[in-house]
Design a protein that fits this description.
globular; 196 residues; mainly alpha; 8 helices; 77% helix
Length: 196
Amino acid sequence: MPSWTKYLWIIILSLVTPETVLAHSGEGITGGLTSGFMHPLAGLDHVAAMVAVGILGAFLGRPAIWVLPVVFPLVMAFGGVLGLLGIPIPYIEVGIAASSLVLGSMILFELKPPLWITAVIVAAFAIFHGHAHGTELPKAASALAYSVGFVVSTGLLHLSGIGFGELIRWPTGKIIARAAGGIIALVGIGFLTGWI
């Protein structure tokens, strides 16, 4: 195992450790960081879209494999600020559901538009996800800590998508990754139609 992975595991474990073990009991930075970290993991709509970004990046190859997972959290943070400031964006839930449908379909059908077009699509959906995070910010939590938590969690979901997307190196793995795209698209349809 590369030496950097042990540090990644230490960070992950410290973020998901029960709050009673931490120096503070859910107030201030601890409550905000933990809440922010757990929020993207709590909703299938968020998980599906964020994993899809990683898989899509793997399908497109370099440099998309790293550009897309960087674009998403950066623009998501901007959307979070808009939500925190109370700046309305219409159809937030529709945009979040559509992100799973569109990104999943791009994987399923192996669509490979130019990187800049894909980055714009990913960024547009990131605004919806970020806005939802910003408006749901717990009142007692630190906005900065909450933001750091959800950006780190999002990054880890992207990394899991990249890892899953790396299956495309093998013929059977490519079929599995495309099928995952189909499932992600179905999740988007489920949220758009209300059956999920």
